[in-house]
Specification:
Number of domains: 2
Radius of gyration: 27 Å
Number of strands: 6
CATH class of the largest domain: Alpha Beta
Distance between the termini: 65 Å
Order of helices and strands: HEEHEHHEHEHEHH
Low-confidence stretches: 1-8, 15-39
Strand content: 15-25%
CATH superfamily of the largest domain: Alpha/Beta hydrolase fold, catalytic domain
Helix content: 40-55%
């Protein structure tokens, strides 16, 4: 009997120890979750502002986001970035999607950047010209106006530049023309000519069966969000 009682007591102590350990683990996980939620809810607010830079009489739209507690630091840190869109969508609809965590602008702002998205003329909220056949050098002139405006506002000699798709050509040409104004250049999903089959496909799409293509295509952020909700 003493032996059985001893074994029983040992088993009971082991079970109790396991229950205590499980309770501590559960409480620590809950505490960690609560702390994460609290720190997320206490994160500094992100400010969003609209701006216009002028280029040869054209208004070039700029969308800016930054953490309010970082505004005084940009001239010291140099953490200023301009995002350049490609041929299909405007800047804000591409880089600041209002769905889940798809906003690159929010991510950069949370990490201490003053981040801007440009609408090349003929896109988004920027002015349109009579023709609006936007070549790369014309787009680079828009970027030049934007960089001058941003650098003056934030007191920095150069900025970080990111281009996506056709924006890689636009950002690249600007950098070749003004290397002294670019701190870092990032090129994402570079534009390419593609295969012969792809070029033929695009040729037929542009010809549109002999029918004229629409001059403009509506591309609000909500349209992109609806497409991404399926993922």
């Amino acid at each position: 009997m003493p032996i059985s009682r001893t074994l029983g007591n040992q088993s009971g102590r082991k079970l109790a120890a396991k229950i205590v350990a499980l309770a501590l683990l559960t409480s620590s996980l809950w505490l960690g979750r609560s702390v994460a939620q609290s720190s997320s809810s206490n994160a500094p607010a992100i400010q969003g502002k609209e701006h216009y830079a002028m280029r040869d009489g054209l208004r070039i739209f700029l969308w800016e986001k930054y953490r309010q507690d970082e505004e005084r630091n940009f001239s010291r840190t140099g953490k200023v970035a301009l995002l350049v869109h490609g041929g299909q969508r405007s800047g804000r609809s591409l880089y600041d999607l209002p769905i889940r965590d798809y906003s690159l602008m929010d991510f950069l702002a949370q990490n201490g950047y003053d981040v801007w998205a440009i609408d090349i003329h003929g896109y988004g909220h920027s002015d349109r010209t009579a023709n609006d056949r936007i070549d790369t050098h014309s787009a680079a002139a828009d970027i030049a106006a934007a960089v001058e405006y941003i650098a003056k506002l934030r007191g920095v000699p150069k900025i970080n530049l990111l281009g996506c798709s056709a924006g890689t050509q636009r950002a690249g040409v600007f950098t070749m023309e003004h290397p002294e104004k670019v701190a870092k250049l990032i090129l994402d999903a570079g534009f390419w000519k593609g295969t012969a089959e792809l070029r033929e496909f695009n040729r037929k799409r542009i010809e549109n069966g002999g029918q004229p293509l629409p001059r403009y295509r509506a591309s609000p952020p909500s349209a992109v969000s609806n497409q991404l909700k399926i993922f």
